[in-house]
Amino acid sequence: MEAVVVRAWHKKPGEPVAQGETVVTIETAKAATDIEAPASGVLAEIRVPTDDEVPIGAVLGIIADTMAEPPKQADAPAIPASEQPRCPEPSPEAAPAAPAPPSSPLTSAPVRVPCSPLARRIAAAAGVKLADIPCPARGRIRAADVQAFLATRKNTSAAPLPPGQAGSGHMPYATQPEAAPLVVFIHGFGGDRHGWNPLLRCLDGSFRTLTLELPGHGSNKASPSAYDIGGLADSIAGLLTQQDKGAIHLVGHSLGGAVAILLAADPRLDVRSLTLLAPVGLGPEIDGAFINGFVAARQAASIAPWLRRLVHDPSLVTDAFVNATVRARTDSTVCEIQQHIASALFPDGTQANDLRATLHRLAVPTKVIWGESDRIIPVQHARNAGPMAAVHFLPDTGHLPHLETPAMVAHLLRQIVRS
Amino acid sequence: MTVLSVDERVVMHKRMLLVRLLEEELGTLHKAGKTRGPIHRCDGQEAVGIGATAALLPSDFITTTHRGHAHYIGKGLDIYGVFAEIMGKADGCCGGRAGHMLIGDLEAGVIGGNAIVGASIPAASGIALSAQIKKTSDVSMCFFGDGAAQTGICHESMNIAGLWKLPVVFVLEHNQYGLTVHQSVQSPVADLSLRARGYAMPGVIVDGNDVAAVYQAAVEAVARARKGDGPTMIEAKTYRVEGFSTSDMGGYQDAEEIARWKKRDPLQISYDALLPLIGAPALQAMADDAAREMASVTQKVLAAPLPEFELFTPSSPYVEVL
Amino acid sequence: MTMMRYAEALNQALREEMHRDPSVFLFGEDIARYGGVFKVTRGLMDEFGASRVRDTPISEQTLAAMAVTAAMTGTRPVLEIMYADFVPLVLDALINQAAIYEYLWQGVQMPFVLRTQGGGGAGAGAQHSKALDSLVAHIPGIKVVAPVTPADAKGLLKAAIRDSQPVVMLEHKLLYNQRAEVPDDLDFTVEIGKARTVVEGRDVSIFATSRMVLESQKAAELLARDGISAEVIDLRTLRPLDLPAIKASIAKTHNAVVVNEGWRFCGYAAELSATIMDHAFHELDSPVARVTLPDMPVPYSEPLETAVLPNAEKIAAAARLTLS
After folding, report:
1. Is the pLDDT confidence value at A166 over 50?
2. Which residues in C lie closer than 8 A to residue B152 (C-beta atoms)?
């Protein structure tokens, strides 16, 4: 299941809002979106405070005709709230702040959600409004997105999350019944679990998925037990062993890849496969300028160039992406921890940890996936994956294969998990 | 030189009378706004088509131009079917699909009017090639104008016909004009049959307004083709007295020139030749019969129903008809 | 079955049909004594005589027009036009002649075949390397086939000769030496209007014509290494199109790549793409991707020519694009 974080309310309860006016800004998958009022009225109630995270489907707030007629629970919109990170012109029904009394005028202007014809057909057959389906980074809803959404919805209605859980960043997010394989995702340096969203959408809900956050990343504001890869791995192993997860499949990106290698070798865990996206640990080189520049950057102008270095196609780095990254870097605790991690693991633009021997000893089926245009860690490191690993080079792809070519990564992941 | 019988002269005279009446009727209907699209009349040129086709057997073939009314009638198409086709009627010999420029009838050996100038020439050579491959004695006769004589395919076709000795007769209906442009502005030579030598075929010039002269030249050429001796070019000198088409604004033909050619009207020449043979009353009776026939055909054509559209599916781009 | 080259399979088809039907005859430039510049008609003049196997003057426009009326009057001509680049010379015969008479003069038949070969990759330059498929496939009333395998070359040529409508057969200069098993049966034909599934797949359909089928097969192998299961369909007949096969494949994969060696704008690939949009829009999960020659002349020098021709890598990249 995907989640949105409320970044800012632009109106206070009781304030009048005009149709089309920005009411609330939400964020997901590294993109922020302003949500406009679908109708004029008064912001009657804020249900999700700033910085709280809720699953898709939650009502964020209520717009009523007047404050004199506070909406009753029954007037809450039947259509669940949603976030629309990139799709232009969200449908009015999709807006999170829905008009409460039925008399409240909804705009009738036709709006369009970019969507493949097949996805449109599947959604119509399932009685789902396109506007309710989160639009992925490519800006267009495909069949897999609808299917993933349907799977999420099914899961939500079967076992709704307890209210308290929604906001805790590193809680497991299972997307499938128990029988499906559990895939655990570990993000890279400076990232967080939202970075996996494009890939998760491409998985059609094929697996149960669990996105974990490294110490000092995203909403995991704890410090690691030690500032080395072992310390990071311990923290993740702790989350995984809190309750027995059974067999898991590990996916790690960059620094998360190095962590995943150690976890795969951890006898406490039952790791069935290991998928590494441009992992740290297979050679000494790393783009030190990127590390330093990224760690130091606090504003859009300084972050954007480094983000563009991450990807092959710079157009993927949208303003929303940049802004979301800037916001994530406003937390001083997080920044401090990351700075420590960077100087410990990548001193002087060098990778301090060599995990080749560990990787070569693993008996777990391993895939290494690398973008041919990676400018952060040289693609040549893939050659050091050892004779047992399957290596895949992705053309026109930089350091973020799961964002840049999510369908391909999803294919490869299905391959290894199902084999 | 073949000697024409009186009967042969009478048959050709009757056909020319009918064609002339048809052209005049079309002129009248056009002025009344009852025709559709441009119509290319052959007034004054009837002797070429009627004389040349009279030398053919029903099993032989012709290809013709956008100005083919005399050729259609000469080759044996029913005047009602031709007229109805020109008027876009369901009874037309092509059901109204073709119009006056593209009439064709495989059974009658009419492989079409052809409104791509010059295209009737390789069309005739192709039929002749077919006859040669099948070893039949069929002859193919091609009508084309002095405008078409300037096309590349005219050269290509005559070269191949001469080379392979194809059973084809090229009848150049030289009416002096390619649309509005006089032949002197289209070719360095006035007598285009000069070119026949270059294709190793005989080239003869005849008076295209004398049906007997055209007929006699055609009989010789057809016989030569049928024997396997190859093609002949007949250059029939004539004149287009009614302009390019019913849409023609005129102004480029010399009035004096038109008057001079009108005096040499092929019907008059034919009349003068028949007068000593059958007498004025018989000729008058022929004219009256033709007028009566034309009046009755006209009435029937005007009353005939228009066709109903049907999609033509054999040319669909998909294997399943959609 | 006999192992033979594509050119030999065509030769065998011509020989068998000439034996079967005395009204079949061949004409074209350099086809008789020399046996054709691609040796497709080798030995046929000696076997059938100089009347039924004719060398012609260089007069494409007239030869094509002659084929039309010869076919209408009882023979089955097979005309060889040496290069598809000369198709513009024969377009009047196809567009203004052959295409209209079946409709205008209902009942006439025009059983002629116009064989030609196109495409690049042989260093033949801008006037001898084009695939002008769209020019002929555009014409209502003309069938167009483009066999890739020797067996299809034989089967489709025999079917074309027996067909009552005009058929243009598009061969490819780089296919003549392809060797494969070819059925010996005298009555072996391949039905016009039937596509062939070359590789079955699940994720994306690649619809290709002529030599591009071979490149698409290679692309499918490249894609398979990435875990992408591509289906490759050899259309075989460009007109009339096997729409049921196209629809069935898209209903399975929901993504389509169309590949044709001709130009892109108003090209055959454009028509395929529009056809898919017309008839399978609601099955599509991504925009149809086109792989074609860029809109420019085919250059001469090897690296330049290689750069413009569609190939397996370009096809695979397009397939990946539909899945991204």
Report:
1. no
2. 61
**Is C8 annotated as catalytic?**
no
Same domain for C24 and C137, yes or no, is yes
Q: Which residues of C touch B133 (CB under 8 A)?
A: 23, 25, 51-52, 70, 75
Does C164 lie at the interface with B, CB-CB under 8 angstroms? Answer: no
Distance CA C265, CA C257 (A): 16
Q: Which is more confident, A320 or A148?
A: A148
Q: Is residue C294 part of a domain?
A: yes
The count of domains in chain C is 2
Please report, for chain A, the start and end positions of each structural domain, with discontinuous segments joined by +: 3-105, 169-418
Q: What's the pLDDT score for residue A269?
A: 87
What is the arithmetic mean of pLDDT over A211-224? 89
C55 and C79, same domain (yes or no): yes
Q: Among all residues of chain C, which has the CA nearest to that of B126?
A: C66
Does residue C167 share a domain with residue C217? no
| Per-residue pLDDT, A218 | 86
Instruction: Give the fold, CATH level 3, of A3-105.
Output: OB fold (Dihydrolipoamide Acetyltransferase, E2P) (2.40.50)
Least confident of A31-40, A86-95, C259-268: A86-95
Q: Which residue of B has its CA nearest to C195?
A: B319
Q: Do chains B and A touch (3 or more CB pairs under 8 A)?
A: no
Q: How far off is chain C from B81, nearest CA to CA, in Å?
A: 13
Interface predicted TM-score (ipTM) over 0.90 = yes
Tokens at A350, concatenated: 């060098």
Query: Is omega for the bond preceding C240 within 30 degrees of 0, making it cis?
Result: yes
Separation between Cα atoms, residue B57 and residue B140, nearest integer Å: 10
Which residue from A262, A292, A245, A272 is spatially nearest to A354, judged by alpha carbons?
A262
Tell me, yes or no, if C80 is annotated catalytic: no
Q: In this complex, how many residue pairs, one in chain A and one in chain C, have their CB atoms less than 8 Å apart?
A: 50
- The verdict on C154 and C202 lying in the same domain is no
| C23 contacts C78 by C-beta, under 8 angstroms | no
pLDDT in tens, B145-180: 999 999 999 999 999 999 999 999 999 999 999 999
Under CATH, domain B6-315 is a member of which superfamily? Thiamin diphosphate (ThDP)-binding fold, Pyr/PP domains (3.40.50.970)
Q: What three-state secondary structure class fits C180?
A: strand
Chain C partners within 8 Å of B322 (Cβ): 243, 279
Q: How far is CA B274 from CA A275, B73, B289, B293, in A?
A: 105, 21, 17, 21
* Catalytic hit among C16, C29, C60, C231: C60
Q: Domain boundary residue among C182, C211, C226?
A: C182
Evaluate if residue A159 carries a pLDDT over 70.
no
Q: Across the beta sheet with A22-28, what order do the strands follow? A: A31-36, A22-28, A3-9, A53-55
* Domain locations in chain B as residue ranges: 6-315
The residue out of C182, C212, C227 marking a domain boundary is C182
- Name which of A311-320, B120-129, B169-178, C314-323 the model is least confident about: A311-320
Query: Tell me: the pLDDT tens digits for A278-293?
Result: 999 999 999 999 998 9
C25 at B interface, C-beta within 8 A: yes
Q: Is the Cβ–Cβ distance between C17 and B125 less than 8 Å?
A: no
Assigned CATH topology for domain A169-418: Rossmann fold (3.40.50)
Domain span including residue C55: 2-182
Catalytic residue among C102, C128, C138, C215: C128
pLDDT tens string A54-66: 766 667 877 777 6
